[in-house]
Amino acid sequence: MPAVLLLLLALPLAAALICLCSPVAVGRVVTALSGTASFAAVLVLVPAAARHDVSYLHVLRVDALSAVFMLATGFLYAAVAVYSIGYLSGDGAGHPPGRRTRLLWAGLNLFAWAMLAAPMASNLALLWVAIEVTTIVSALLVAIEDTDGAAEAAWKYVLLASTGLGLALLATIFAYYAGAHVLGQSYDLGFTQLLSVAGRLPHTAVRLMFVLAVLGFGTKMGLVPVHTWLPDAHSEAPTPVSALLSGSLLAVSFYAILRFYQVTQVALGPAFPRNVLLVFGVASLVLSMLYLFGQRDVKRLLAYSSVEHMGILAVGVSFGAPAALAGVLLHVLGHAAAKGNAFMGAGALVRKLGTKQIMAIRGGLDLLPASGPLFLLAVFALGAMPPFGLFRSEFEIVAGGLRSGSYAAAAVLIIAVTIAFAGLAGSVTRMLMLPLSRPSLSRPQAHPERTLVPAHAAAVAGAPAADPASAAPQITRVTGVTAPGPARGEPSAWMVVPVAAGTLALLWLGLHPPAVLDELFARAITLLGGGAS
Amino acid sequence: MSGIVAAPVLASTVLASTGLASTVAAPSALAGGASVIAVGVLLAEFGMFRQALLRDQVRLYAVQSGLLSVLCIVVAATRHLPDVYALAALSFALKVVIVPVVLRRMLRGIGAIGGDPRWSDIAGSHALSVASAVLIAIVVAAFGFFTAAALGLRSPVLPATALSISVAVILVAFVLMIVRRDVISQAIGFLSLENGVSLTALVVAAGLPLILEIAFLFDLLVVAVVFGLLIRVHHGRADSLSTAELTSLKG
């Protein structure tokens, strides 16, 4: 089993190197293979992690909790790698030209590598380093589209996230201080060691450590009020990067917080860490719910939805009941699939119409016969509609909250989720269902990103829908007779397959999660102290 | 200039509370020396509020990092921790030499006025006047100083005052990043925040395995390079080092 860990470390890194020094055509095949192979490796790892911890040389260690987050990252890595074949080929709008495309492919692999490595780290210092690497790589990926917006978003992101991680480093150092207090100077921040003596750690240091960790890693996770980089980075990054940022990176940061939570709740009892998470979680829920109304940029809309879901995770952990914790873990998986799908669907729309402005995107269901409905389903899944996995997870979280007596927080959760769904669904249904007004005149458009251009003008930019570089079958049929608007049809089948797979996964999680997940969750819940309450 | 004027006031506050922290007895030579170096780190942080040139800002960061390396050597010599010598050497090589050199190489010619690279001007980037900024920073530093002292964390290698000062450095670095609206000061603000964290680490975690310290330092180098790259990107698009234009993304 340790071989699988090494494979997961080597594969994306090798793929990144190959992408750097070979043509784009090779790079995208290698990335897709690496993505699917990594996902397969994680699938092999999951049943093992459900039974026992897998470790290698005291450096790598995967337990049930890590496996959950690796599963989310592995799935999204595979989905995004396949999606990008369609998204980054041809001369369609929305991806950087020439040499940068190669860097983007390499960056995607490197980003996935760091996110897979973080949950495998067996000590808090390596965990911190891995998460810092994700920041560095993703900041460069945000900047890769050479626009004013991308430069601004990347600067804000790298500054805020690095500063947050500075605080997280301080938390790591206080973890060392606390551990060395009991274990002596030979202590190396090993996680199991720290946990085994957690009951004897000095309280002040642990308290400081936990608050700094939540604030520091919370910056990367997008908890209000330290979320401000998130909508900018998510909206300005290329769509495959946005999907990874939102579905996977935020979860990996949450994983780091959970590790500190594990130690803190043994050292101080559950009340303190739960209250801290409750405050941040409720703030995230309430604020993002308000921001979901009146958004003008479709990717910002989805970014605020991510803030909302991170709030749900934090509130869920603060409930502490086993049912709520099971819900939280399922939510991590469901959110990765649903938010990945939503970003990929939005990416197809943006590519088709050449604009991110919600007001300018119309007729999505007409134009995209497959991506349109799948996007709608992804948004329903994000809003916790019944057949999907997020309904099950949010139901479990609320049930756990009621069982643990947190009636007020559970009520806030239900209300906020409902209002947020209204905000999200309102904008998305308008984009998909309202007809695209067929223009009588067309003029060359200038800046689809910056200004609120009329739909028809923007549509001209998105017109080259056919994708000569891809071998995928084309479904191109012109509906309008005289209109110069975009043709009906998918830009590329590569952009549909992963979204369809994600939808199936969401249905599977919602209707009948496999038994191995139950085992995995049960073990992870014990780690999080779910049995104690 | 007000940063310099304010410094003695702050230093005397710091020294007064050093006396309080170690009850009635005068601090030992080591404790006194260590606290003086730590105060030097804090003063360098205050100096960053008024630097007007890219080059000087980077240089001040190197000075601050150098003070930190000196403190490492003091700790290593007096507490017989051979690892910390290596840490001091590495930290000196990286933060005093490599990072400043890399930053200045990458930013050569950026923001130059009239082609003279010495005048990479960041003087006008204050959101507040220097005096107000320093006053706010003093209040924040005092808050951090006394709060950290109240936590009662004890360290076997350095006096608790050094811990309090490190917390003050971290908080002042935040103020710096907030009140200076140019990419250089913000980047240096982050790097000096990391110096503050290193100071904390030296006080409470001097025994941290060297391999982890190396990982942190290497990471810092990569971050510095990425900051340099993004500063170039920013300058290439905005044709200035100011962040005042970075307001198009909101809501």
Describe what is shown at a glance:
The complex is a heterodimer of chains A (533) and B (251). By secondary structure, chain A is mostly helical.
Please tell me about this protein's structure.
The complex is a heterodimer of chains A (533) and B (251). In chain A, 71% of the residues lie in helices and 1% in strands. In chain A, α13 (322-353) packs antiparallel against α16 (389-403). Chain A has 20 helices and 2 strands. In chain A, strands 1-2 form a two-stranded antiparallel sheet. The longest helix of chain A is centred in the N-terminal third of the chain and has 36 residues, at 148-183. With 251 residues, chain B is mostly helical. Chain B is 73% helix and 3% strand. In chain B, strands 1-2 form a two-stranded antiparallel ribbon. Classes of the chains: A mainly alpha (533), B mainly alpha (251). Chains A and B meet through α5, α6, α8 and α9 of A and α6, α7 and α8 of B.
